[in-house]
């Protein structure tokens, strides 16, 4: 695994660009300025409910090149099979969202790329917002060729209780443990990979789970003050 030696901070820009490339570039700027190692987006096409948040393939290439120019790693979560293949040569890690934890064919397709997978362990079907250990175990059956980082995640928006006390439950899988956090807390436990949402302002879809650039910088500073 291409494991970082210290905490690897991912600024989750998601679709807070509202489908605008220049806004996406500004999110790259503030993520870099805040000290994040990577900025992550969400890649998809032909999902009707998210149509207005799409970027074209040409725009994705331009955004990746802009990240290279700025000196920050480009990442994006694929939400379609087409996106899995499109992103293959653009990033060192694949992030799989919690909603795909129970989709064997999707997991196997990502696994076929033989790259480190950051696997979120939240749940949209349980009131707790977390997947069961049995569900995680079942998902791992379909990932044979790739290293896996299990990302502690609570799929609630906003997440008032990130339940960090449950981090230890993931140790039974003998995988690297990370955190994909939807809370607004600026101090969270250490983990090899840590992901937080970032926004430019309140005019974005994930406003209620995203930190402002100033808050994100404070979050990064807090992570490094150990």
Overall mean pLDDT stands at 95
Number of domains: 1
Instruction: Tell me which CATH architecture applies here.
Output: Alpha-Beta Barrel
The helix/strand order is: EHEHEHEHEHEEEEH
Task: Give helix % range.
Answer: 25-40%
> What Rg, in angstroms, do the CA atoms define?
16 Å
Mind summarizing the main beta sheet?
A: 9 strands, parallel
Identify low-pLDDT runs. none
CATH-defined fold name:
TIM Barrel
CATH superfamily: Aldolase class I
Instruction: Compute the number of strand runs.
Output: 9
CATH class: Alpha Beta
Portion in beta strands: 15-25%
Structural class: alpha/beta
User: If helices are DSSP runs of H or I spanning 4 or more residues, what is the number of helices?
Assistant: 6
Explain the overall architecture.
The protein has 6 helices and 9 strands. The model has no long low-confidence stretch (mean pLDDT 95). The chain is globular, with a radius of gyration of 16 Å. It has helices spanning 21-34, 57-70, 81-86, 104-111, 133-140, 213-223; strands spanning 8-14, 38-43, 73-78, 93-96, 116-120, 148-153, 176-181, 193-198, 210-211. Strand 2, helix 2 (57-70) and strand 3 (73-78) form a beta-alpha-beta unit. Strands 1, 2, 3, 4, 5, 6, 7, 8 and 9 form a 9-stranded parallel sheet that branches. It is α/β, with parallel strands linked by helices and 226 residues long. The chain has a single domain (8-223), classed as Aldolase class I (TIM Barrel, Alpha-Beta Barrel).
